[in-house]
Amino acid sequence: MADIVFEGVQRKFVQGGKEFLAVGGVDLTVADREFVAIVGPSGCGKTTCMRMVAGLETPTSGRVLVGGKQVTQPGPERAVVFQQFALFPWKTVRGNVEFGLRTLGLPADQRRERVAQSLALMALTGYEDAYPHQLSGGMQQRVAIARAYVLQPDVLLMDEPFGALDAQTRVVMQEELVRLARTNPKTVLFITHAVEEAVYLADRVVVMSRRPGLIREIVDVKSTRIAERWDDHARIEDVMDLNSFVHMRSHIWRLLREQHLGDDQ
Amino acid sequence: MNFSDRNLGRREVAGFAAVGVIAFLAIWYAAVWSGVTPRKFLPTPLEVLSELYRLSVEPFVGYTLLEHLVSSFKRFFYGFSLAVTIATPLGLLMAISKPVRVVVSPIFESIRFVAPIAWVPFAALWFGTGIGGPLLVIFMGAFPPMLINSFRGALYVDRKYLEAAQMLGAGPVRQMTEVLLPAAAPSIVAGLRISAGLGWQSLVGAELIVASSGVGYMMVKGQAGIQTATVMSGMIAIGLVGLIIDFSLRQLERRMGRYKETY
Amino acid sequence: MFLRTLYSGSVLILLVLAWFALTQWTGVISGARFPSPKETIDALRIIFLDGYSNGRLHEHVLQSVLLVTMGFAVSSAFGVVTGILMGANKKVEAVINPIFSLLRPIPPLAWIPLAIVWLGLENSAKILVIFVAAYVPCVINTFAGIRSLEVPQREAAAMLGLSQPVYYLEVLIPAALPMIFTGLRLSLQASWTTLVASELVGAMRGLGSILNQASQDILPPMILVGMVSVALCGWIMTQGLGFIERRAMPWRSL
């Protein structure tokens, strides 16, 4: 069972001698194989939350549990897909995807097989010996996702993974991720500031407030998605045309606007 | 006013280059033939070249030019390799480990301003005329740039690579060898070039003072006998070898640039 | 920041203590190999008060520093001007390049024997070698600096209808200034190293001569005094240049 539990999680930062609260106090449960997106204004702490699940940062109070165990450090069972890809430029595609498997201690032939599978899943077969700089942004991010998937992680953490891509590539990647998530469901925590993306991909959308980050509202998307049969439409633009989609998106937008209104007050 | 300095065609470049070379040779010959400089002090270019040839076949102060060069290069190579072998991992270590940095930094900063050549007296005292002497001097010349470049290269590695490696389960050793080292490689290779240049310089300096073979020694003996052509031949030989070393390292640098675009 | 100086200070203090311990207190390292603090202080006193190698410490320092400054100033002036001419005019570059590329790989120290043949052991020989040492980095870096002016900026200058002198003084050279100073810094280091080497080979006075004499007399404490003086002077001059650099380029956050 790979669920994510935030128990009273707080994160303080010290900058320039002053202390401030990045994450104010979060209690959240992501069920096993549930796809949860977190949206919120810049600086609301959403990325920090993900990094605490990843083990790249620790809460100053409260704790984060994955599969019942408290998170203390990073590891391949909580795979991360970074916004800037973070592929190793000096390794080939195969080298990058294989890197984490060596930690898991798999023998060479098993590694080769898993890498081939993962690359096929991300439509990268044939690019095994290419270097990252030879690939487009979209392809590089696919390698990053393949690298995460190959680990067969308990939990998948994605930090604005499509943020560095151009608009059209972004849409293609969103469609692919949906396809992947529906056929190969995993526990996913997805950070984004693009509301449409969140509504399209997630089962639930968590809306966070501005600093100090607190959960403003959790919107259940899945029931609407199933009721209104969004998955009948293969193309993203057809889904985004549906009234139910538009309503949901606008609702979340209004919640976010409240947060931004705080700037003027 | 013409602001765009247009690029010259290949023929033009060759033409101007020829002008430069001819002017240089003309001035040289003029100085020799006019008698402004005593013949002993300034041989003609041709005499220098013929001396260069003579030294490659006839031994001078014990060895031919090539043997002297090999002797010099061996010393350089040992000193340089030692410096690189110690400085590279030490620099990486300093970048990731605060305790190491705190201990090494002050020691390094105090010693690095001593000109490498100033180590010659102690080198002579401790090692006599053995290879240890020049080795120490070369090491002292080649070590600082290597350490600095290795340290800075690793320090400025983007955090995201280390985080990705940690996420993928790599321990500190793998992080150092499989992430830090490749990521710092461009800086390290640039350091190699600077280091080699300084090391080769230091070698020449050391050989001028404490050696019984090698190109520097050859030049000193030539100078003592006012054999200017010999001295100049030595200079040419040293310049050539230095050029070859730098060229090889520049090739290495270019090969590293294969995946440099994404840095 | 404070912690860092505290750590560095403690490490250095530990080193000094180790120095005392290994030489004076236990004698693990004999005085023939490395001087003890006491011997070094004695040597320092001698050279400061009575003099060593034909002069007292400040006389040596003055001699060396003066020579370096003279050589460096003349040479870097020539070097910067050459670099500007080569950088601004591709024809000049084409003419000078072959000879420059031929002479450049020859390390300055390799000029010492030739300088001695031509000029003996006088100061002029040392200035010649310093000239060679300081000239090359200045030319290379100034050249690179001039060439670093980007096309858009050049076009802006053309659009503004600048005259040649104004273009040089207010656009080209300021743009090249950071790299010019890099060249000056390298030149100064090279000048200093080369001078010490020349003095080591043969000189009556100067810091290098201290090292030479001490080496011949087999006097480790004096060698140490010489080395520390060399390092200190080198450091001070580098700091001085850094000071000038910051003043010359107030628009840079150095």
Could you explain the architecture of this structure?
The complex is a heterotrimer of chains A (265), B (263) and C (254). Chain A is of the alpha/beta class. Chain A has a domain at 1-73 and 195-265: Rossmann fold (3-Layer(aba) Sandwich), CATH 3.40.50. Helix content of chain A is 38%, strand content 24%. In chain A, the strands form two sheets. A six-stranded mixed β-sheet of chain A has the order 6-7-8-3-9-10, sandwiched between helices. Chain B folds into two domains: 1-37; 50-262, MetI-like fold (Orthogonal Bundle). In chain B, helix 3 packs antiparallel against helix 8. The longest helix of chain B has 38 residues, at 172-209. Chain C contains ten helices and no strands. Chain C has helices at residues 2-25, 37-50, 57-88, 90-103, 112-119, 123-147, 151-159, 164-201, 207-217, 220-248. The longest helix of chain C is centred in the C-terminal third of the chain and has 38 residues, at 164-201. Chains in contact: A-B, B-C. At the B-C interface, helix 1, helix 4, helix 5, helix 8 and helix 9 of B face helix 1, helix 4, helix 5, helix 7 and helix 8 of C.
Q: Give the averaged pLDDT of chain B, no decimals.
A: 87
Elements of chain B, N to C (H/E): HHHHHHHHHH
Q: Return residue spans of chain B where pLDDT drops below 50 for at least 5 consecutive residues.
A: none
The CATH superfamily name of chain C is: MetI-like
- Tell me roughly what share of residues is in helical segments of chain C: over 70%
The main pleated sheet of chain B reads as: none
Cα-atom radius of gyration of chain C = 23 Å
Provide the CATH top-level class of chain C. Mainly Alpha
- Order of SSEs of chain C, N→C? HHHHHHHHHH
Look up the CATH topology of chain C.
MetI-like fold
CA(first)-CA(last) distance of chain B = 40 Å
What is the share of helical residues of chain B? over 70%
Q: Biggest interface and which pair forms it?
A: B-C, 62 and 65 residues
Instruction: Report the β-strand fraction of chain B as a percent range.
Output: under 5%
The CATH level-2 architecture of chain C is identified as: Orthogonal Bundle
Classify the oligomer.
Answer: heterotrimer
Number of helices of chain C: 10
Shape of chain C: globular
User: CATH H level of the largest domain in chain B: which superfamily?
Assistant: MetI-like
Instruction: Using the coordinates above, name the CATH class of the largest domain in chain B.
Output: Mainly Alpha
